[in-house]
């Protein structure tokens, strides 16, 4: 089989490595991929948002199955276009991807189907939002309606900060049209858990849980980033909590989407907060998380391609989705200064990958024959082990054996999970 994976980061590298394990796979094309994937995929210089070119490529190269990984092409309708062209595809159609594409849609869905989430108000005009900010309790959570590169959420500790954020989103349009509507939410507290789930629109099979580390610096300080590291499983996510999430969140969401005429097939990402009142949805994403995928897929014992085909065919109830009872840790190596200002173009030296470890490249290019850094997040060093401390130690040992100038990583990935594990 010839496969095509749309996207170009560490998440896509992890997906490609897992797909490659199926002996039916002859070739995997990455659109556009990145130079760090050269050993695993054939790179095709077609951008993740260039849907007409993706369809044309799939038709002319005899692609048997496509995986659309990032949010942008999903929200823009890549799966619809590929499906119309007769290419079987993993990922939700445009009308289902709206669950991530519009926070207003997602909040409204949850309200109508009684799915637990933070209470909220939606505003389409600046003046009403500003007057609400005068009286609403602090801190205030302000979210741009549409996609905003993971940066569209502001937690304002003061009314001044809240008003500044509202001006920036609704007047200055720092997130473009994504800020035409804003959601102002109740501030929730509790441990956060990411749960990715395979679904064909009817059956839902949650994957192993994980914990992201979104802030740039140790001790969860600094700016929000795309994610500086992950561990799986998440120790806060007990079997009892998993059952509550299945009954009150996962199943109701899948059923609600089907009922709305927007059946969701693909990977649905539940960003959850385990509040004192029970698990609540912080966000839905219509895709695999990054860097959650880098710790979840290495623990998958079943065959990824078979599962993805079943999601596309509506036969997920007939396939096995089994995870190893082990632990995984991913340490992201970024360029110093990420997520704001950083340099690119430094040569990268990679070590051999020891057993049960791997390096997923997120941002690299080829220059004069050498692999060089080409993004804020450069790679994820991942290790799988029987215990969490071993997984953390091995992931750091691997990260420390990678070299490029100005490399930066948090030194405390997994420490919160370790402490939580000890409490329980
Ligand atoms: P998001 O981009 O929606 O994942 O939000 C980024 C981060 O903001 C989340 O990981 C949470 O830590 C935080 N956050 C979002 N919504 C809330 C909320 N209602 N209460 C508290 N924290 C929140
Ligand atoms: N790691 C968070 C996300 O993928 O949105």
UniProtKB/TrEMBL annotation:
Give the Gene3D superfamilies listed for this entry: 3.40.50.20, ATP-grasp fold, A domain, ATP-grasp fold, B domain, Phosphoribosylglycinamide synthetase, C-terminal domain
Query: Which of UniProt's keywords are assigned here?
Result: ATP-binding, Ligase, Manganese, Metal-binding, Nucleotide-binding, Purine biosynthesis
Which PROSITE patterns does the UniProt entry name for this protein? ATP_GRASP (PS50975), GARS (PS00184)
Reactions listed under catalytic activity: 5-phospho-beta-D-ribosylamine + glycine + ATP = N(1)-(5-phospho-beta-D-ribosyl)glycinamide + ADP + phosphate + H(+)
Q: In its UniProt record, which GO terms are filed under biological process?
A: 'de novo' IMP biosynthetic process; purine nucleobase biosynthetic process
Cofactor(s) the protein requires to work: Mg(2+); Mn(2+)
Pathway(s) the chain acts in: Purine metabolism; IMP biosynthesis via de novo pathway; N(1)-(5-phospho-D-ribosyl)glycinamide from 5-phospho-alpha-D-ribose 1-diphosphate: step 2/2
Any Pfam family from its record, for instance, is: GARS_C
* Listed GO MF terms: ATP binding; metal ion binding; phosphoribosylamine-glycine ligase activity
The protein's Enzyme Commission number: 6.3.4.13
Leading EC class: ligase
Superkingdom to which the source organism belongs: Bacteria
Q: Where is the signal peptide?
A: none
**ATP-grasp domain mapped to chain residues:** 107-313
UniProt KW Repeat keyword: no
Q: Hey, which family's this protein in?
A: Belongs to the GARS family.
Q: Which HAMAP family match?
A: GARS
What is this protein called in UniProt?
Phosphoribosylamine--glycine ligase
Organism of this sequence: Candidatus Avoscillospira stercorigallinarum
